[in-house]
Structure formats: C-alpha cells, structure tokens
Amino acid sequence: MEEIKLLGAWPSPYSYRIIWALKLKGLNYEYIEEDLSNKSDMLLQHNPVHKKIPVLIHDGRSIAESTVILEYIEETWPQNPLLPSDSHEKAIARFWMKFVEDKEQEKAVEEAKQQLKIVEEHGLGDKKFFCGNNIGLTDIAFGWMAVWNDVIEETVGVKIMEANDFPRLHAWVKNFKEHPVLKDNLPDRNEMLAYYMHKRDILLART
Amino acid sequence: MAEELKLFRTWSSPFALRVIHALKIKGLEYETIFEDLSSKSASLLQYNPVNKKVPVLVHNEKPVCESLVILEYIDETWKQCPLLPRDPYEKAEARFWAKFGDEKLLSSIWNVLITQGKQLEEATAEAVQNLKLIEEQLKDKKFFGGETIGYLDIAFGWTVNLISILEEIIDQKLVDEEKLPLLSAWMQNFSDDPVIKDCWPPRDKMIAKYQAMREPYLKKVVSQ
C-alpha cells in the first residue's frame, strides 16, 4: 500500500502546486502543515539542504523542490498525464516551467507587464491551457498567477494584470479556477487577503 | 528524413558545454552557430523570441531552449547511452542536484570571483560547503551517473572548467584534494574522458574574460 505524505504550508503557491498535481492524479495523501517560523524535525530531516516546503515523502523517500516533485509525480503515476507525450512539446512545457521560476521575482511594474505579455503571446497563445486543451504541469507551475496574483495586487494596491491588457491570461485564470478538480482545492481568498495584509502591516511597521 | 541539428551558442558559455557534451556522448552530428550576444542574429531571435538567450538547440527546425531542458530532450529523443537514471526517484535526485548546482553553487562561485579579503574568505567557505554537499552525492562512484557519464555529470561539468580558471585568477585552491578528495577525482575523470576533453573553450581566453568580469568589483571596493 503506497504511502504519500506532503509537507506544505497553506499560503504557499509551491505547496499548492503539489496538492493540485496529486489531486489531478486522483492520489490519496496525508497533508502535514508546517509552521515555517518553527520548522519541524520532520522537515529538517527530509529536506536538510534547503529546509523548505514542499517536500513529498513517498514510501519513506523524500523529494524536494516543487518542479522536481511535479516531474516525479508525473513519472510515477502515469494516469491523467500532465505533460505532453511528444518530446518537443514536453520541452516547451518545461521551458515555461523554468520561465515562471526565474521570473517570479519581478518587482518593477513595467517589467512585470512585459513578462506577462511574453507569457500571454508566446506561452499561452490561443490555447486554453499552456499545452492545449488539458491542464498540465505548466499550468500548475503558473498557478500562483491564477490564484495569488490578484490577492497580492489588492494587498499592495497596484493592478498589473488588467483584463483589457491580458485577455487570454484572464481567460486562462477563469479556466484554471473553474477546473473540476482544482476548484475545490484553492486557498480561501479572504484568508489569503488577511494573511498578506497582515504581513504587509508588519513590514510597514518596521520601516 | 536526415536529422538536422543546429546549436546556437557563445564560445565561452558553460551551459552550451552541457549541450555539446550530451550531443557528443550520444554520437550526434550538429552544426555550431556562434552568437555575439551584443549583436544577436535574426535566427536566434526567431528561435528564442522569449528570452533571446543561448544555448538553443534546433532539431529539424524545432527549437529547444534552456540547457537542462535541452539535456532532457536529447535523452528522450536519442535512446543510446542514456543520461538520466531510469528510476523516477533517482531521476528526481539528479534533477534536484542539478537545480542546486545552478542556483546555490553557481551564485556562491560567482561570489568567489567578485570578492576579496574577508569577503572572499566567507565566499570561499560557502562555495566549499556547497561543493561538499555535491561531493556527498558521488558516494563511491566514479561519476554521478555511475560507471559512465550521466545527466548530473554533464549538469556539473561547467564547474570542472570554471573552477580551475577561478583558482588561477584568485591564486587560491577551491577544490582542495585533501578536503574534497572524491570531487577532485571526479573532476579529473570527467576532464580525461575522451568525449569531454577536446571540448573546453581556449583557456587563455577564458582567464582573460573572467579577469575582466572581476575587475569592476575590485575597483569598487578600492574606491570606497
């Protein structure tokens, strides 16, 4: 009997990537919430190098780094494939997964808008999801954009991803949130807003 | 249909070396197109419009970008001399350490290049710590891939060349044979491999290039 455990933290988009992948594969798992201000021995034991979540523990063996975990899940449980079978299309999917890892740190508004334009035109194009009609690992990697982005925008009071400027991305966000499996596995928006507002207050109080 | 492989790269890019090593191990013929990054060719911009970077591998007119993504593509497309392990868990471990190399190790080695004095001591200590973690993955194997060169050896291959260049520039050992015996041996084995050893970029040009990259950081400290 397979044993799958996920060490995660509820506000983390990286944590949710794994939840979404496991749910899309129809897998049962035990979720363990980590308090990142007081990391458990289990986390330190299973990810001694980075001491971060998410960590997947499958039959006692641990895998860290969300994109590495996503690929592991895809290879270990081939049902409901989340990557294209064609090697070139797979390479494109992986390229965009790397792109979103590198670009998450964009702070300046103009740069962020430029990056979004690139994603909309070159990544998404006319497709429903990044790799076609079905949701895949690339969509999961971009998931923060579907769920966290507008909460962050509301928290800081700056709108970057306007519907008029990014119609395809907005359509993708809607399709992502309405996906039959994902829609019941999204963090609560009010709780997220409260969480990020609180974080912001702390930061502002310090300056 | 005849396979057509083109590799867009610069003369010095460590990430391009990864692709070259993989193609050579697989015994694949390819055409090299050298890019001048200050004046990118129309072809490069056409094949990689998103981030306009090298290396780009173009296979029968289909471009693949990002060196580690290219490695996986090569391994999946040409099955001879497999680079990645078969087992998903071992594959995950290889990918994890390749990512570690590109993030933690690369930035710590960069810090060694651009610092001096006390900061250099700290940067060196951190780089050596990261190298120690990587050395532990060798265990008792000749290569990270086992008896033969694999994905992780290729992913780390840039360290073999760049570290020796750095050591000459800063006149200090980073990979000490006593402190990092297994890694030292691995570097030698990797360099001596008949497929790898003719691929290194010209050493004197590399030293000049990295010396030039270091200069502005040294000047900045002196002027403060």
UniProtKB/TrEMBL annotation, chain A:
Belongs to the GST superfamily. HSP26 family. GO terms for cellular component: cytoplasm. Pfam families: GST_C, GST_N. It comes from the Eukaryota. One of its GO terms (molecular function) is glutathione transferase activity. CDD domains: GST_C_Tau, GST_N_Tau. One of its GO terms (biological process) is glutathione metabolic process. Residues 2-81 form the GST N-terminal domain. Its EC number is 2.5.1.18. This is Probable glutathione S-transferase. The keyword Transferase applies. Keywords: Transferase. InterPro entries: Glutathione-S-Trfase_C-like, Glutathione-S-Trfase_C_sf, Glutathione_S-Trfase, Glutathione_S-Trfase_N, GST_C, GST_C_Tau, Omega/Tau-like, Thioredoxin-like_sf. It catalyses: RX + glutathione = an S-substituted glutathione + a halide anion + H(+). Gene3D superfamilies: 1.20.1050.10, Glutaredoxin. Residues 59-196 form the GST C-terminal domain. It is an enzyme of class 2 (transferase). PANTHER family: GLUTATHIONE S-TRANSFERASE U10, GLUTATHIONE S-TRANSFERASE, GST, SUPERFAMILY, GST DOMAIN CONTAINING. The keyword Protein biosynthesis does not apply.
Automatic annotation (TrEMBL), chain B:
Pfam families: GST_C, GST_N. It catalyses: RX + glutathione = an S-substituted glutathione + a halide anion + H(+). GO terms for molecular function: glutathione transferase activity. One of its GO terms (biological process) is glutathione metabolic process. One of its GO terms (cellular component) is cytoplasm. It is an enzyme of class 2 (transferase). Residues 3-82 form the GST N-terminal domain. It comes from the Eukaryota. Residues 87-216 form the GST C-terminal domain. Keywords: Transferase. Its EC number is 2.5.1.18. SUPFAM superfamilies: GST C-terminal domain-like, Thioredoxin-like. Gene3D superfamilies: 1.20.1050.10, Glutaredoxin (3.40.30.10). Belongs to the GST superfamily. HSP26 family. This is Probable glutathione S-transferase. It comes from Olea europaea subsp. europaea.
